[in-house]
């Protein structure tokens, strides 16, 4: 939690003994633990009040879900109803970058195993438009 190891803990205990003394230290520990317990109880009661105010449809609501990373992981990546894992695995960025590098360096690109998909060859130079000709409409690009 706080990433405190054994040497740091021993140093804190020795420092507390030096500052508060052996006679006041037990009372200080009790006061700190009592305060932490009250803070924890206050936090839990506030969470329960919010859940009760939201109504029964939010009974499974977790405050950790308000973190965007947790929300995306829980609702998008775990269920994968949209097939996002398949889409993510379909990108082969290494071969794409190799093709671009070859094109920039003037080398003939090696045929990629996925080039038979029938997709447009983005490295090929397009023919210029004739005067008065409109560019093709791409609904996916808008």
UniProtKB/TrEMBL annotation:
GO CC terms of this entry: TAT protein transport complex
Q: Which GO terms describe its molecular function?
A: protein transmembrane transporter activity
- Coarse class of the protein's main subcellular location: membrane
Q: Report the membrane topology from the UniProt record.
A: Single-pass membrane protein
Q: Output one GO BP term.
A: protein transport by the Tat complex
Q: InterPro entries given for it?
A: TatA/B/E, TatB
**Segments of this protein annotated with the region Disordered:** 100-142
- Here the segments flagged for biased composition (Basic and acidic residues) are 122-142
> What Pfam families does this protein map onto?
TatA_B_E
**Keywords, in A-Z order:** Cell membrane, Membrane, Protein transport, Translocation, Transmembrane, Transmembrane helix, Transport
Write down the superkingdom of origin.
Answer: Bacteria
Q: Where are the transmembrane segments?
A: 6-25
On assembly, the entry states: The Tat system comprises two distinct complexes: a TatABC complex, containing multiple copies of TatA, TatB and TatC subunits, and a separate TatA complex, containing only TatA subunits. Substrates initially bind to the TatABC complex, which probably triggers association of the separate TatA complex to form the active translocon.
Belongs to which family? Belongs to the TatB family.
General function of this protein: Part of the twin-arginine translocation (Tat) system that transports large folded proteins containing a characteristic twin-arginine motif in their signal peptide across membranes. Together with TatC, TatB is part of a receptor directly interacting with Tat signal peptides. TatB may form an oligomeric binding site that transiently accommodates folded Tat precursor proteins before their translocation.
* NCBIfam families according to UniProt: PRK01371.1-1, PRK01371.1-4
Protein name listed in UniProt: Sec-independent protein translocase protein TatB
Organism per entry: Streptomyces caatingaensis
Q: Which gene encodes it?
A: tatB
């Amino acid at each position: 939690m706080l990433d405190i190891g054994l040497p740091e803990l021993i140093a804190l205990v020795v420092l507390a003994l030096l500052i508060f003394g052996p006679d006041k230290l037990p009372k200080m520990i009790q006061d700190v633990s009592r305060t932490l317990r009250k803070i924890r109880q206050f936090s839990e009661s506030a969470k329960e009040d919010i859940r009760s105010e939201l109504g029964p449809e939010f009974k499974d609501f977790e405050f950790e879900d308000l973190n965007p990373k947790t929300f995306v992981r829980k609702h998008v990546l775990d269920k994968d109803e949209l097939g996002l894992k398949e889409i993510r695995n379909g990108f082969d960025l290494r071969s794409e970058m190799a093709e671009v590098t070859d094109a920039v360096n003037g080398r003939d690109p090696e045929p990629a195993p996925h080039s038979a998909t029938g997709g447009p060859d983005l490295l090929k130079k397009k023919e210029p438009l004739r005067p008065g000709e409109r560019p093709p409409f791409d609904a996916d690009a808008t």
